[in-house]
Design brief:
- By secondary structure, the protein is an alpha+beta fold.
- It has 2 domains: 3-150, Glutaredoxin; 158-281, Glutathione S-transferase Yfyf (Class Pi), Chain A, domain 2 (Up-down Bundle).
- Helix content is 35%, strand content 10%.
- The chain is built from 9 helices and 8 strands.
- The strands form 3 sheets. It has a 4-stranded mixed sheet. Strands 1-2 form a two-stranded antiparallel sheet. Strands 3-4 form a two-stranded antiparallel sheet.
- Strand 7 and strand 8 (134-137) form a beta hairpin.
- Helix 6 (188-209) packs across helix 8 (253-263).
- The protein is globular, with a radius of gyration of 19 Å.
- The N and C termini lie far apart (38 Å).
């Protein structure tokens, strides 16, 4: 999907980083400013614009925070097309997949506006600041947490932070990123290691949710919000496209009930696009899906 060097876009993408053992390693986000009451980025309604993509789970985190915290009228958003091209995440001139803010046709055009010139991967989500005409952050975890500065329910209450952080760390390593470590593995051993960790962690989450509605205490927290995007994609994408097929989400009674409970929250279902997920994860890939054929199934009922 290309890379940017000193503010110039280059189509020649070197591909996912890997270790010598053939294990996938995700590149770190590098633009990490913060919204605070003291500024320079302050929580002002109408100041920020979110660049997202329906099928990106990291962007989904930010979209969920935007909905759960009641910020849809305060933070605008643009959604990239389901499939990336050699230009990376791309936008149409008009319609559902257009950018009404800057009118860009690819997300690299947003990164190109950074001063000094940006070098690195071209990912979503991207939180854009209208006032200073620059990117605030391209780190999804930071964007989720800083959206709390606008108000709304506290997803990271101080008395529960140690527990939330522990779940966040475990879920990121073994579930959010774990499915990618399985799907992008270049050796049998790297795949075996990753997929075992995915399901060991899902088993632990199942145990926790048996008799509980949420991961921490008795209310939704940031840990739940960061888990849900992977659950939403699991049976329609990761189970097949990434070979995470020891079990399906629907095979976990407590976890499946929890996922549907989350999906039923006001506004959450509007952030979920199952057909878009399939278009993205089953896009043409020499390693995973050379013909680019998108499966019809599975048929899963997410309603309570």
């Amino acid at each position: 999907m290309g890379v940017m060097i000193d503010g110039t876009y280059r189509v020649d993408d070197p591909g996912p980083d890997t270790t010598e053992g053939g294990a996938f390693k995700r590149a770190a986000s590098t633009i990490r400013n913060w919204i605070t009451a003291d500024g320079p980025f302050t929580p002002d309604a109408g100041r920020y614009h979110l660049y997202a993509a329906w099928n990106c789970p990291w962007a989904h985190r930010a979209l969920l925070a935007r909905v759960v915290l009641g910020l849809t009228d305060k933070v605008s958003a643009a959604y990239a097309r389901p499939r990336r091209t050699e230009q990376g995440w791309v936008y149409d001139e008009a319609g559902e997949f257009a950018d009404p803010e800057l009118g860009v046709r690819a997300v690299h055009e947003v990164y190109a506006r950074q001063v000094p010139g940006y070098t690195g991967r071209l990912t979503v989500p991207v939180l854009w600041d209208r006032e200073t005409a620059q990117i605030v952050s391209n780190e999804s975890a930071d964007i989720v947490r800083m959206m709390g500065a606008f108000g709304g329910p506290d997803l990271y209450p101080e008395p529960l932070r140690d527990q939330i952080d522990a779940w966040n760390d475990r879920i990121y390593a073994n579930v959010n990123n774990g499915v990618y470590r399985a799907g992008f593995a270049r050796t049998q051993q790297a795949y075996d290691d990753a997929v075992v960790q995915v399901f060991e962690t899902l088993d632990a989450i199942e145990d926790r949710l048996t008799g509980h509605d949420w991961l921490v205490d008795d209310a939704m927290t940031e840990a739940d919000l960061r888990l849900f995007p992977t659950l939403a994609r699991f049976d329609v994408a990761y189970h097949y496209a990434f070979k995470c097929n020891l079990r399906r989400l629907v095979d976990y009674p407590a976890l499946w009930a929890y996922a549907r409970q989350f999906y039923a929250l006001p506004g959450v279902s509007e952030t979920v696009r199952f057909e878009v997920y399939k278009q993205g994860y089953f896009s043409p890939s020499e390693l995973r899906n050379p013909l680019g054929i998108v499966p019809k199934g599975p048929i899963v009922d997410w309603s309570l």
